[in-house]
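Lab notebook, bench 4. We co-purified these components, and the gel suggests they stay together. Before we commit to crystallization screens, I want a quick structural picture of the whole thing.
Request: model the full complex, all chains together.
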Amino acid sequence: MSLGVLLPAERAQASIRSSATPARLTVLAAAVLLLAGVATSLAVGESSLTLGQVLSTLVGQGDPFSRLVVVDFRGPRVGAAVLVGCSLALAGAVLQSVARNPLASPDLLGLNAGASVAAVAVVILAGGNGGVSGLAASVGLPVAALVGSLTSGLVLYLLAIRGRQLDPVRMVVVGVGLAAAGTALVSWLLTLGDVMVVGPALAWLSGSLHAATWPGQAGLLVVLAAATGPLVLLARRLDLLVLGDDTAGGLGLDVHRTRILFLLLATALTGAATAVAGAVVFLALCAPQLARGLSRASRPPLLASALTGGALLVWADLAARMLLSWTGFGPTELPVGVFTAVLGAPYLLFVVARQRAGSEGIPS
Amino acid sequence: MKVTDLSLGYGERRIIHHVDLDIPAGALTVIVGPNGSGKSTLLRGMARLLRPATGAVHLNGTDIADLGHGALARQLALLPQAPATPAGLSVGDLVARGRFPHRSWYQRWSERDEEVVRRALSQVDLIDRADEPVTELSGGQRQRAWIAMVLAQDTEHLLLDEPTTFLDLAHAVDVMTLARSVAHDSGRTVICVLHDLTLAARFADHLVVVSQGRIAAAGAPKDVLTPEELDDVFGLSAHVIDVDGAPAVVPVRRA
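Here is the predicted assembly.
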């Protein structure tokens, strides 16, 4: 039903079900914000372009200089921001529905940590002077991150599910434990590395789109495209999972298999996104809840979450890239992960505070 | 519905031992038993949320173990005890979830779906509150909204696990009146687990008493609920009197 928001025919007459208007408006607003962010990010930088130059380049008619800036310099970075933002937000939306917990997200559940451990291991153990390059960077890093997040997803599943029942609180507690273990492992790996290798590894760990390339994000594009199909087909099942295991089972859902499938999709999206951008924290937590609040839905809507995530990361990356130069601190830039963390931490506190105020325990 | 030699448990722990049970069609069957007797476990087994260790449950002659997930959900609906209500879910949307087993992934919301959901909401008297969030309703209304969801599932069999928990007596009576009328008016088979003996005695057509994972007694409430049985199974000293043609359980007051 997540795509139902785009099918007006479905609710031609006043239905007993709630109106899809807030959901449609959210999708529209997030899409506009995303496109505006992409256009602005492509235009703004060391050498500024006009919006007209950017648009004409995008339709294939720009001058060679604009094309160089848009396609070769800024394009990979903006493209990566969109793909990473969409993927992480989708993973978050799926996990929050499956875990019936608004605090569930790939970073809090330790999926990022798994990807980080594996990727840092590749950088430290296989990297030469100044980090990894060549085959290790283009294939080794993404594959390692994917394997790492799948491994922590598997451990999470084995530890969080007892007697085929999922306890939402237990899942988050296990996830926090996994994340802590991952952080410890990463620290240990960093002590093993050469100074020249540790620097780039640290930059990657704090979440940065600085080094994004077109070939580097091909893997993520493939994973995102592959995950979209099943997610669209199975979105309706998320509506049942948020009602609890027994209710969903009584309504004819194979809860166990459905949940494994969703966890697999979320884990793959996280791993692929982490391989491109490193540990971008909090985005997967905030974007789905923002989209859910605006859509007035009982769970994070998938399309709106993805667009919101993409828009947030594009704007956050623009701010991370330009903030210091705009405020006169010179041309240095912040890693976008630092920026999302600064914005996300107060949000997390806000969720916890609101949860305590509510009488219903954990709203999902 | 017919239960034969059914044993159930969680892992190594066996809770229900070789139970045989015939559930009358088109009537309200109430399952009672002391805390920890296994009555809810038995209901979960009847809904196939637990796989049997031995025995089987048959619906109209078919072993439910042989049915697909959708096929079972079109014949049997289950309302779990104290279900989770997500914030932001409207009453109408909750009841619409009951149509899930009737729709394939490619099927749009149909007029038939709409009609069944409207009928279910009218039946529980919430048709005017379809737009409101479920979390805003009072306890009794919320329970009725959930019952509307299983009614919208449009099944021949309806299983309710402690639907009166957390409700005051007036609302509990409302819910049981509704369960009884669903059975009698539309000829559905309703099976309800209750811990309240008085309610069970007043509303059940057929009463099943579970004790330590076995059936202690089954039959019409007036035959099953005797002072001896109450003392035996529940350790309760009570008089059983007849009011309006149905038994009422009145605890003995000790000086």
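The mean pLDDT of chain A is 84. Worth comparing against the SEC data before the next meeting. The first strand of chain A starts at residue 161 and ends at 162.
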